[in-house]
Amino acid sequence: MLEVVPSPIVSSTLPDPAPVQVAVIVGSTREGRRAPLVTDWFTKAVADRVDVVLDVIDLAGFDLPAHYTPNATPSLTDLRVRLAAADAFVVVTPEYNHSYPASLKHAIDFAKQEWRRKVVGFVSYGGVSGGLRAVEHLRQVFAELHVHGVRETISFHGPWNGFGDDGQPRDPAGAAAAATVLVDDLVWWARALRAARQADLSVEAGEW
Ligand SMILES: Cc1cc2nc3c(=O)[nH]c(=O)nc-3n(C[C@H](O)[C@H](O)[C@H](O)COP(=O)(O)O)c2cc1C
């Protein structure tokens, strides 16, 4: 059910101890969606960590323009400001027709520099594949935006996306371990890339 790989990373040995700002992006906007269940589990799973600060960006709460436009709107500005403030991203995504929801791609394409030279991790859910096909497509998209994707993925699959009637993962210990592995790696990359961005502002301002 969960892809868990032991991590040798000890993030506290890195020189920059400031907490990592993590934007948790909720990709599904469907009525009746399971996304809040999965997102709530993830945010609670990492709530005790002192090395991350979460900002949950729920795309269902944004009124993004239907057409791409250079004109700012309140929702668009809010989205871009919050993405810019992030050192790292965690994308919570289901699988729709062997890929990720259009709502997520729509939001991704509205930003550019806000993504650049940062790191992304994935929490996926779906049917038999646990959303992993959505994640593989997202890795290609984020590579184009100069975003490093961490190897570890948290993936829930099966009936009700791997969650029981109580709204909790059917394998709570495995899910918690997977969250630790994912966020350990995310923090390592986020700190390394933050230091690199601060040291070389020309890279930060680079064109495509
Ligand atoms: C339009 C649509 C297409 C879907 N396609 C797939 C699919 O290709 N593979 C899969 O495993 N699950 C698929 N599902 C099941 C979803 O992954 C599952 O219902 C999930 O809960 C959807 O996320 P949401 O509830 O947050 O919208 C699909 C669901 C929808 C609504």
Which shape, going by the Cα principal axes? Answer: globular
Q: Which strand order does the major sheet show? A: 2-1-3-4-5
Oligomer description: single chain
Architecture per CATH nomenclature, i.e. the level-2 architecture: 3-Layer(aba) Sandwich
Write out the distinct hetero groups bound to the structure.
flavin mononucleotide
| CATH domain topology | Rossmann fold
Order of helices and strands: EHEHEHEHEHH
Taking all Cα atoms into account, the compactness measure Rg is 16 Å
Global mean pLDDT: 91
Number of separate structural domains? 1
CATH superfamily: Flavodoxin domain
Percent of residues in helices comes to 25-40%
End-to-end C-alpha gap: 37 Å
Q: Work out the helix count.
A: 6
- Strand residue percentage: 15-25%
Number of E strands = 5
Write structural notes for this entry.
By secondary structure, the chain is of the alpha/beta class. It has one domain: 3-Layer(aba) Sandwich (Rossmann fold), CATH 3.40.50. The chain is built from six helices and five strands; from the N terminus they run βαβαβαβαβαα. It has helices spanning 35-45, 74-85, 102-108, 132-144, 172-199, 201-204, and strands spanning 20-26, 52-58, 88-94, 118-125, 147-156. It has a five-stranded parallel beta sheet with strand order 2-1-3-4-5, with helices on both faces. The longest helix has 28 residues, at 172-199. It starts with 19 loop residues before the first strand and ends with a helix. The relative contact order is 0.20. Flavin mononucleotide (FMN) is lined by residues 28, 30, 33-35, 94-98, 126-129, 161.
